[in-house]
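FAQ: What does the model actually see?

It sees only this:
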Amino acid sequence: MHAFIPAVGAATASIFVYFLAREMWDSSVGVLSSLLIACSWPFIYRTNLGAKHEGIAIPLMLLSITLLLQSAKRGSLLRGLCAGLAMGLVVLSWGGFLYPWNLISLAVLAWLLLNPGDVKLARAYLAFVAVTDLFIAITPRFGPKTAFYSPAALVPWLAVAASVLSLAHAMPSRRAMARVGKKEVAIAVLACAAGLAAAWWAGLLATLPGRVLAVLIPVWRPVGVTTVAEHAVPTWASIYGDYGLLIPISAFGALICGYRARKRFEDMLALLLWASSAYAASSMARLTLLLAPAVALLASAGFAELVERLLALRGVRRRYRRGREVSGELVGLTLVILSLLLLPPLLNYRAVLATHQPPLILASSVPVVEYNYQYMDWISALEWIRANVPRGSVIATWWDYGYWISVNTLRNTTCDNATLDSKQIRRIARAFLSSEEEALRIFRELNVSYVVVFEPFLRAQVPYLGGYAYYSPAYGGIGGDMAKSYQMARWIGEDPDKYVAVGYIDGYPVLVPADTPEARNATLYHLLFVKTGRRRFFVFEPLPITGRPLANYKGPSLTIPQPKYFKLVYASQPNEWVLVFKVEYPPAGGRS
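And it is asked to produce this:
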């Protein structure tokens, strides 16, 4: 049931974005926004069956903003409370609630500074933030500290203060705010920068998760954040590949909102939504998903503005310097061209493929469309763990697979995708890249009973051996713990080149252990390159008789020892990609 919720919830985004666009502009913008987000490849790709929480959180975020706008327009306190309730559900489902919580607060703060007499918005915001803060405070993962006295609560508190002052008619008037000169603005910016630097020096910002700081200030990005591909800084090409021409069209919509931001709260909120989500998407690859609603809304608004202006030209007789009129044919041709600009994003073949792509867990992280259940290894391993590993056992694995194991088997893992303690992740990385004795010491401290590793091995036929040589692929889209060991080394401050090297089989690059003592000694490699009933030979190993490498292989040639303290108890089916080991601790007083 848990696997279906994100996919079903994400489908409602096309409904909620319609109501939000209608509230901000009109129904025509709402219809186009709904269509664009329904066809958005980055949104579909990350909200399919078995995906994470964004499939629930983003639609609820859109609903919360819609209810807040309705509350401010109609003076309905109940709608303000409902907006807070919707945001409260975002809090329960998504650690990224910090973004919409602060986005709405920033928009309200900026608007009340420019329009201190808007008591309806102030009242609506206070109702919204009261319920939202209550949810944050009672959620064990966050608690009162996050809600009331953490750095993340600074902007909401400032918005609360502005709302209270507005209701008390104690805010500076708009005329007084208009008299603020460039000098005062510059001083305020410098003061904010100095305050930020002081907070960093005092360690106050350290309470924010590394992934949050990595988005806000990419130059301060911790090593642990950069070791995950989806947390890396994306290229312009990748962002444009996701959204195409919707990027410049939405930028035009944001420009229009910028001109109107002083007069309409909806435009100010839309502008901040687009600017902040674009900044976040430019800071972290995973957050291109967050940009999807903003692009859909602002591209629709920008397109509608262009169409409206063009249609208005039909009834106006304007002449160029040479005396030619603006013809209806020219207007019609321009409308056709503008409409054609929307076709590539709507007909994006990747969006269609994403709707047919099975969840990563079902295909063992192999991105395939034509699927005949040939990559069921993770499902096989999870079923075995659930049936054979005792309840209460702790399983050591790299954090990418922690959710899959804990959710599907109800067994404890050492770390998962939600682990905020970087020290815990470093301990697992050190255990995997250290000797078996050091790994045992760390695993004993963590009460680990089993270890799970994953590698989607491919194979090359070796006719004169009468079998196959197995290898780890070195190209994007397919990879397991061998590729991740490069990042594990970065986690613990080691040189990745001491562990991972690139070899070539028939001219194609493959990942192999480096010919170094560190690689030969690494516990992870002992586990990955264990001999199984099917895999008896790896491309980097010397031939049994001659001691020489394969004729069609170029790269480091070495032998990885078999594990000493780890017993292979299960190899997944049908490809033996997921390996489950039982830790065999030496007797008390023995060497470990």
